[in-house]
# Entry
Amino acid sequence: MPEPQAASPAIRYYWEDMTVGTVRELGQVTVKREEVIEFARQFDPQPFHLDDAAAAETHFGRLAASGWHTCGMVMRVLVDNFLRYSSSLGSPGLEKVKWPKPVYPGDTLTVRQQVMEARPLNSRPNVGLVRSHLQAFNQHGQQVLLIDSYALFRRRETAGKS
# Structure
């Protein structure tokens, strides 16, 4: 994994750039076996995330990444290729998280964001709320993750105004 960036680059995306229907291809990440095991040791120590023999006895059939690890990898792609260039103010939460297919070491995940809803906040006129579907697909085009998320973005129209 790359090291976190110290300084933020210039902002390219504000709430006004989050029009409904916009789809962004955000990049890829390849799943590394060592990272699957290390994540599982720390955060999700179930046998099918830690051990080949144990995983072979489950419906996974082989070592599989934790769904939470998958979320983390997707988040990293989202930050590196979009959020760090945006006026993001964080997220008030998620509606749902689904893992329709397992993720295995060696898989290459492609991350996509689709804007589903965008509206200004009445209580904070300089901020807009965006609901997006974050999706990850493996190298076979199979969806392995769907996150229905909300995020807050500063508005361009009011940037610099209090």
The mean pLDDT is 94.
